[in-house]
Amino acid sequence: MFTLETLAKRYDTGVLALDGVSADIAPGEFVALLGPSGCGKSTLLRLLAGLEAPSGGRVAWDGHTGAPGPGEIGFVFQDATLMPWASAAENVYLPLKLRHVTRKLAAPKIAAALAQVGLSAFADTRPKGLSGGMKMRVSIARALVSEPILLLMDEPFAALDEFTRHKLQDDLLALWARTGKTIVFVTHSIYEAAYLANRILVMSPRPGRIAADLRASLPMGPHRRASGDYVALVERITGCFREIMPA
Amino acid sequence: MRRMVESLAPYGFGALALGGWQGAVWALHVPAYVMPGPADIVAAYIDAHAVLDAGLVATLAVTGAALLAATLLGLVLALLMAASPLFRAAIQPWAVIIQVTPVVALAPFIIIWVNQPFACLVICAVIVAFFPILSNTAAGLAATPPDLLDLFRLNGASRWQILFQLSLPYALPDFLTGLRISGTLALVGAVVAEFVAGSGGFASGLAWQIIEASYRLEIPRMFAALVMLGVTGIAIYAALGLLERLLLAKRNRA
């Protein structure tokens, strides 16, 4: 269980990015942090990862505070941020390499992570030979290889074209259903949040606060995007934003 | 076919220009002490090749030593600047001042202070050559992608792991660009230093050959030494370009 207790973040510039954010995230949840640009959702993700310290409140893991250990957090950025000189397998190896796991010992884990994102055939390909969607898959495999207890994703599909985005969304859903990973996914797309998450934290801008905490359970499968529940959920979220951000 | 013609074009143009030059010298009866033709220059090289080759070796030794020293100096300073903003703030303006001061103006002082001729020439050439390596490498180190830095930190990377597995590989293309510029500048620095030092009494190198030949009005020999310097410069540039391609080949392949 991850607990956010009245988290606040004020930057040195004086900008209050987050104010009084509290939430419990249960294991296995797929949480979408949804809000307009500048609402502090990326900041919240960085606090969760321990990349920045909060100015107030705390992040607790199963009750105890403290930064997460190496490899306990998988992080996927908006850009794939692969090292251009390294093959897909070497890029996936990175989190283990940094913890001095030998290549031999890591090999099955690397192969498994690449298989999870359907890129087994491209293990030896360098980023230059991969499409945008494939690079993002490698980036996801890299986040999974250390078997993190929490997968954090910061608008990972925002820079992809719509066809690739839909495919990767479906693959991520399948991966979540298969592994039961706890995922916190930052997005500014209402449709993406509604489609992917089983819990949506709607954030209000400046300073960032959680304005609504919505639960959802859409049917899995090919008709998810066309289901009435999905349309209703999108409508509910849109209603939330109408209240937060009156024209 | 079109590509082959294009790749041969520089040689064709060179041959045409040389032929035109030689033809004009012959047709207009220009004396060799005013403007020698290519044939006179080749003859002058054959005539004096022992002295000229020795000069080339001397100049190359200074250039090579200076490039090596400039690389080490530039790299170390760039790493320190990347590690400490205070060091960067303290050093950067001075590096620029040394860079913008013409080495011709500095050389006489260095000749007074440094008695060993070789070291003196190398120091002058290093002053000219180190800056592109320093500034390019420093810029490359500063441009490490912040997301990857975060990723390294999340996985508990040490400072050294960040430096050797992330920052330095990312700065490699910038460093190599700096190296290529510095390579030709080291030659320029060596030649300038030889000019100043030569008139101060140290005799060495191709630049000194040019000065000496001009004292004796041996214009074809001046040209021969000049051509050798030009070819050396091109060779250094090409060699460092090849090194760059070899080292970066891996990341440019799919």
Folded structure, characterized:
The complex is a heterodimer of chains A (247) and B (254). In chain A, strand 1 (2-10) and strand 2 form a beta hairpin. Chain A has one domain: Rossmann fold. With 247 residues, chain A is an alpha/beta fold. In chain A, 36% of the residues lie in helices and 23% in strands. Chain B has one domain: MetI-like fold, CATH 1.10.3720. Chain B has helices spanning 2-28, 38-47, 49-83, 85-100, 103-113, 117-142, 146-154, 159-199, 205-215, 219-252. In chain B, helix 3 (49-83) packs antiparallel against helix 4 (85-100), helix 3 (49-83) packs antiparallel against helix 8 (159-199) and helix 3 packs across helix 9 (205-215). The longest helix of chain B is centred in the last third of the chain and has 41 residues, at 159-199. Classes of the chains: A alpha/beta (247), B mainly alpha (254).
Protein topology:
The complex is a heterodimer of chains A (247) and B (254).
Chain A: E1 2-10, E2 16-25, E3 30-34, H1 41-49, E4 56-61, E5 73-76, H2 88-98, H3 103-116, H4 132-144, E6 150-154, H5 162-179, E7 183-187, H6 190-196, E8 199-204, E9 209-215, H7 228-244
Parallel strand pairs in A: 3-7, 3-8, 5-6, 6-7
Antiparallel strand pairs in A: 1-2, 1-4, 8-9
Helix pairs in contact in A: 2-3, 2-4, 3-4, 6-7
Chain B: H1 2-28, H2 38-47, H3 49-83, H4 85-100, H5 103-113, H6 117-142, H7 146-154, H8 159-199, H9 205-215, H10 219-252
